[in-house]
Amino acid sequence: MEFMTGVNKKETLEIGDLLTGSYEGKSVKVNGAVHTIRDMGEVAFIVLRKREGLLQCVYEEGKTQFDLKDLKDLVEATKDQDMTDAQVDEIKAAKEKLQEFFQTSVSISKNAISIHYENKEDLNRILELLNLVEEE
Question: What are the pLDDT digits (tens) for 13-40?
Fold first, then answer.
């Protein structure tokens, strides 16, 4: 067992840190509950609710380390539910497993799981995985 000494530096910043630090033009890591998402296409504004107030973040397609659609799906799946971080992680893990199994995009919303397909052949492939295709 290893023992740690000293102080662990926080990975995420609070609103107060952002206001007092010189972070202009730099990438920072923050966390909070998603309050709203305004999707403008290649750019989106994500407002996070934190105990100190609201923080607007800018999402730029191709520059961030997550997919906006995944964030929207997760927000929809957990909306109006009192969920723990572990339960949210379970939903994320389930989505990843389903996408790996079906080899296509999967959305999990509040009361549904959607499996996306591109064309009729893709749909037939998915139906075969589910054993829903009758043999001729």
Answer: 888 888 887 888 788 888 888 888 999 9
